[in-house]
Every structure is written in C-alpha cells, then in structure tokens.
Amino acid sequence: MLDKEVTKKNLNKLVLGFYTRVLKDDLIGPIFIDILGKDLKEQKWKAHIELLTNFWASLALGEKEYKSSPFAPHIEFKERLSVKAFEQWLKLFNETLNTIFHPQIADQFLAKSKTIAGNFIRNLQLT
Ligand code: HEM
Questions:
Q1: How far away, in angstroms, is 12 Cα from ligand 1 center?
Q2: How far apart are CA 87 and CA 126, in angstroms?
Q3: Residues of the chain with pLDDT under 50
C-alpha cells in the first residue's frame, strides 16, 4: 500500500531506503562510503539520516529542525561529482520514492530533488 500522506515516519523510511540503495551502487556508493562509512547503523550515518529526514521534513512539512545549508558540504568533494553521478542519485531516489509514496506525492519529491540537483550541478559547474 503506497502512502498518500507525508509524515516524519515515512520520510525517515524514504531516507533509509534511499541510502540502502546508494551503498550498493557502484557509481555513487563509494563517495558516501569514503565520507560516512559503509554501515548505516554507525553514528555518522545515523546523524546523516536524521539530518536528511529533517531536511525533507522542512521542505515537505514546513518543519524547522533543519537549519543547515544543503549545498556547502558538496563543495568539499566536488571533484568526485559529475552530471552522471547526479543522474544516478536521482534514479535511486526516484526508485525509492516509488516504493513508499503514491505517484502524486512521489512526483512532487522528484520534481523538488531535480530542481535542487540542477542547482547543485550549475553552482558546482559540473559536466
Ligand atoms: C551524486 C550526488 C550526491 C552525492 C554524492 C552527495 C553526497 C553527500 C554526502 C557524502 C553528504 C555528507 C557530507 C558530510 O557530512 O560531510 C551530503 C550531504 C547532504 N546532501 Fe548530498 N549528495 C548528492 C546529491 C544531493 C542532492 C541532489 C541533494 C538534495 C536533493 C542532497 C542533499 C544533501 C543534504 C541536505 C546534505 C546535508 C547537508 C548539511 O546540512 O550538512 N545531496 N551529500
């Protein structure tokens, strides 16, 4: 049964499910593994998953916990990023969205993430 409502709980499921896919991915998995490790149960990952759950909750639910800057950390590993890497990120995110949300909601998240990815690509001047 696909969710028709966005909650903090299903956002957490989205983020966990997404990173489970990411870690198995040959293209973008290694970037995350080098920075956060390979075990989603480790503290670094737990903090990242909570941060990203709050990030999506701020966009989808107007919650206020996320106060950081999404763009800044990506500058640190800019040389490992590419348009292709972002396409893969979007593909895995879309696949995860479709396992959790009703298409109407999944499409809204995908549209939002495409806009953000486009901004990152432009600001990082990726090819
Ligand atoms: C290939 C594409 C991407 C890669 C490899 C990537 C990788 C990462 C990594 C490794 C971190 C953790 C950095 C750290 O803790 O030092 C991070 C943080 C983050 N990423 Fe990405 N990312 C990508 C695309 C995106 C996209 C498209 C979005 C949004 C739609 C996004 C949103 C975020 C946010 C919100 C944070 C936390 C920033 C903070 O507040 O510290 N990322 N990313």
A1: 16
A2: 12
A3: none
Query: What is the structure's pLDDT at 75?
Result: 97
Q: Please report the pLDDT score of residue 29 as a whole number.
A: 98
Residue 113 CA: nearest ligand 1 atom is: 30
Q: Could you give the domains of the chain? A: 8-123 (1.10.490.10)
pTM of the model: 0.98
Query: pLDDT tens, 115-126?
Result: 999 999 999 999
| Residue nearest atom 40 in ligand 1 by C-alpha distance | 68
Question: For residues 48 and 76, what is the distance between their CA atoms, to the nearest angstrom?
Answer: 16
Q: Which of 25, 31, 60, 26 is nearest to 48 (CA)?
A: 31
Nearest CA to ligand 1 atom 9: 32
Residue nearest to atom 10 of ligand 1 (CA): 32
Determine the atom of ligand 1 nearest the C-alpha atom of 31.
Answer: 5
